[in-house]
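Exam revision sheet. Question 4 asks you to relate a sequence to its structure. Input first:
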Amino acid sequence: MQSDARSAKTTAPDTAGEADRGGGESLRRVAVASFIGTAIEFYDFYIYGTAAALVLNQAFFPTLDPVNATLASFSTYAVAFAARPLGSVIFGHFGDRVGRKSVLVASLLLMGLSTAFVGLLPGYGTLGIWAPLLLIALRFLQGIGLGGEWGGAALLAVEHAPKRRRGLYAAFPQLGPSVGFFAATGVFWLLSAGLDDAAFRSWGWRVPFLLSFLLVGVGLFVRLKISETPVFAKVMNAHEAAKVPAVEVFRRHPRALLLGAGGMIIAYGLFYTATTYCLAYATGTLGISRNTMLALSLVACLFLAAGTWLAATGSDRIGRRKLILLGSALAVVWPLFPLVDTGRPVLIALGIGGALFCMGVVYGPMGAYLPELFGTTVRYSGASLAYNLGGVLGGAVAPLVATRLQSAFGSSSVGWYVSAMAVISLVCVLALPETRERELG
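Answer key, structure tokens:
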């Protein structure tokens, strides 16, 4: 790890100068390294969400009634969100003290391997109660790995970028979730279309998890070729690293941490309501076929990518804060469930796609906005904690709350719940400053 810092010392000036001159090679290297890791790791995360909505309830909780089995499946899904802040503290500590690059390699390994082993885990019929317990353990490790991934990938991009192009550079790791979600959904759609229901539930759902072994190798190959960021190299050269970065975040930046987490709530809430929950709701309650819903999710993912790219790159001109506020405001009024409840595929695609577009408008600028809220010595820890605390509040509980609300009060109550999350994010971001003119050094 010390060698990473030493190599950064020698390579940082050239990299920074190349970036300031707008060198294409530097942008390509940084873009690929920051993008591919988030794409792979979010692929890993999303295949679990899809499996939780479609099959894990029967594979690991067959003794429960359908509603409680779904809740139990979503509860294992929530475990990873609870673990993500812990991952932020662990990986953020070493990322702020040792370097961004080494930590990103470790987070990729942990996330990818714990995901792949889910594909090898026998179900309840073979292991009994040990099956869901081991599933929870692997899911916890997934969460720790992803807790360290996003912050490092965002910093890899932002700290390599010239000041007026940080939104553009940060757009690449922010596109990772769109591509990861598209790949995860696409693999499940192909398996669902090509296998009968018995084969899909028996072994087909395991294939996306096993593919993670291959994807981890690709990600490591790319990540090991990137240099340390020039901004962090200056900190290491000056021996200014924080002793306990997480403590420093809570001591010096509590307002930015809590409000940044609040700003992330609607991005998570929209995504997991519009994807994981709507997939379970449409196939289980509305009676829409699994293949149809997976295909519609693929279409909706294009809206997410468009919103993310437009808002991330536009934030260099318009400002991060304005666009995040716009996306939050749109999310307050977007009629997701009135469109889904029609049962018509075109309107379902519009409902989910529009929700994901709103999410992208919020999410795209966050790749630069959250890192810009914190100083270099605590930036990995601060940005990661804000991002993942927002995930606990918006992502972990959204499918659980939505399932309970719909069963008790109908789908309109889930729509009001999403609007409430959007209002919370709107208020939090209103209390934060614009950051695009800030210096990172």
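Marking note for examiners. The mean pLDDT is 84.
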